Amino acid sequence: RAKAAGGNCFRFYTPDMSAESRTRMMRHAALRHALDRNEFVVYYQPRVDLKTSRLTGVEALLRWTHPQLGEVSPVDFIPLAEESGLIDSITDWVLRRATQQVQEWTLRHGRPFTVSVNLSARQLRNEKILASVRQALRASGLHPGQLELELTESALMEDADTAAILLKELKRHGLRLSVDDFGTGYSSLAYLRRFPLDCLKLDRSFLLQNHSDEVSPWKLAEAVINLAHTLGLSVVAEGVESEEHLAFLRTTSCDEIQGSCISAPMPPEDMERLLCSTHSEQLLA
Ligand code: C2E
Ligand code: MG
Ligand code: MG
Ligand code: MG
């Protein structure tokens, strides 16, 4: 197995290690070379205005395919990248790639939209991200207002004072900031006011309706959307999968939606095709 997986990088494991920790160690070693060997691709998932059905933006979602290990989910490799410190150079690459791509699309198709890049918690405790963002904007020529950074609730809470200072600095450059997966952590909306946020991404768990619950999560979603608006944040519902989800969201004042009911994350070629078709003017039936 070690041999098949590519030789001496994996020599540290011993037969008594669990299969799980062996997989982990192999991925760890392989991740070090993923950037140099061009194994990453940025996928894009559309975001749509619920009222006009128009494309408003795309989220950049990283994909890694290793020649032997196959496709590894970001849910698995992002934590490894965080532990090993590789996350800074990976994010730097995603920022450059995504801003360059969206600037190209903007120039070619004439309709500006935003691109959102996910940040990890530890990147809010480190000034490196400022240089990465400045570099990506300068190199691509993308308008700063077309770049959005997504931060999870827990990332904001971890070291809130440091994060607040860094986010204010980022905000000075004119980009947009959003809180991702809202509702999965323990922060209150009121607490989030200390950060210069533009947008709240409602976690998809709000749409997983359970009729036996005392208070339907859908009711909660509605309350959160209204409160977010009171605080001046726009709201994106994520994980919108079905007509039922869509019909519910249309009864609320939710601003945008993202999810498989529009499209799964797709490779740049497919996104390109979508932009070329008149269909992108009207992404919802
Ligand atoms: P996220 O930022 O919350 O991204 C949304 C995830 O939900 C994506 O999973 C997307 O494919 C998935 N999704 C979209 N629509 C639907 C839907 O209708 N139903 C369901 N069930 N899922 C949907 P993905 O691409 O596997 O990414 C997972 C997580 O990995 C992301 O969650 C983000 O936290 C992290 N991630 C991905 N790319 C990057 C990156 O470049 N940098 C960092 N730091 N994290 C990343
Ligand atoms: Mg995200
Ligand atoms: Mg999310
Ligand atoms: Mg999520």
Outline the fold blueprint.
Elements (H helix, E strand, L loop, with lengths): L18 H16 L5 E10 L5 E12 L3 E3 L1 H11 L2 H23 L4 E5 L9 H13 L6 E6 H6 L1 H12 L4 E7 L6 H4 L6 E4 L14 H14 L3 E4 L5 H8 L5 E2 L10 H9 L9
Parallel strand pairs: 2-4, 4-5, 5-6, 6-7, 7-8, 8-9
Antiparallel strand pairs: 1-2, 1-9, 2-3
Helix pairs in contact: 1-2, 3-4
Bound molecules: ligand C2E and magnesium ion (3 copies).
Number of strands: 9
Q: Ends: how far apart?
A: 50 Å
How much of the sequence lies in strands comes to 15-25%
Helix content: 40-55%
C-alpha-based Rg, rounded: 20 Å
Structural class: alpha/beta
Number of helical regions: 10
The pLDDT mean sits at: 90
Which hetero ligands occur in this complex? ligand C2E, magnesium ion
Give the overall shape. globular
Summarize the main sheet: 8 strands, mixed, barrel
Residue windows where pLDDT falls under 50 for at least 5 positions: 1-9
Oligomer type = single chain
- Biggest sheet strand order reads 1-2-4-5-6-7-8-9
Order of helices and strands: HEEEHHEHEHHEHEHEHEH
Protein name: Diguanylate cyclase
Domain EAL: 24-279
Organism: Noviherbaspirillum denitrificans
